[in-house]
Amino acid sequence: MIYELAVIGIGDIRQQDQGVGIYLLDSLQKKFKKAPIKFINGGVDGEDLFILLQKVVAKQIIVIDAAETTINPGSLNYLTITPNETKILEKLILITIEPFKTEWGAKLSLSLLRKYDNILAEVESNIKELLNYSFQ
After folding, report:
1. Cβ-based burial of 69 (10 A; exposed 0-12, middle 13-18, buried ≥19)
2. What is the pTM of this model?
3. How far apart are CA 76 and CA 20, in angstroms?
4. CATH of 3-131, one of 1.10.10.10, 3.40.50.300, 1.10.760.10, 3.40.50.1450
5. In what order do the strands lie in the sheet with 58-66?
6. Would you say residue 50 has pLDDT above 90?
7. 39, 51, 95, 126: least surrounded by Cβ within 10 Å?
8. Which Gene3D superfamilies match (predicted)?
9. Domain ranges across the chain
10. What is the mean predicted confidence (pLDDT) over 7-14?
């Protein structure tokens, strides 16, 4: 089956904000139950992402992960790749969220939790835009 969209969450939920990709994946899966989306828990090993991407059959793929860059904590960063020579994949979007804390701990930091609903809404909006679809 070819999915319209696949969403892959990556992260380590044992390291506070490093798990945000997994938490967002879970929230999105609940919001988009009836949508033509394949949700995939990519686990903690980003190296396996390349193997996973080869197995996913979707027109568009979103990968969500935490990444320490130079932007403000809680902010989102986007990288969109439009492959030229693929038969199915039209667009690959990497969405990274700047973490506040990455120490050992089984929950998101309070600082990221305060921004979580806004982050979720932004990712949800991107999904709706990609699918040109209105969800109730």
Report:
1. exposed
2. 0.90
3. 12
4. 3.40.50.1450
5. 37-41, 3-9, 58-66, 91-97, 76-81
6. no
7. 51
8. HybD-like (3.40.50.1450)
9. 3-131
10. 95
Residues 6+ positions from 26 with CB-CB distance below 8 Å: 9
| CB-based contact 5:93 (threshold 8 Å) | no
Measured CA to CA, the distance from residue 65 to residue 32 in angstroms comes to 19
At 131, the amino acid letter reads L
For strand 91-97 and strand 76-81, is the pairing parallel, antiparallel, or unpaired? Answer: antiparallel
For the beta carbon of residue 77, count every other beta carbon within 10 angstroms: 13
Average pLDDT over residues 51-60: 86
Structure tokens, 134: 């209105």
Please state the separation of Cα 4 from the chain's center in Å: 16
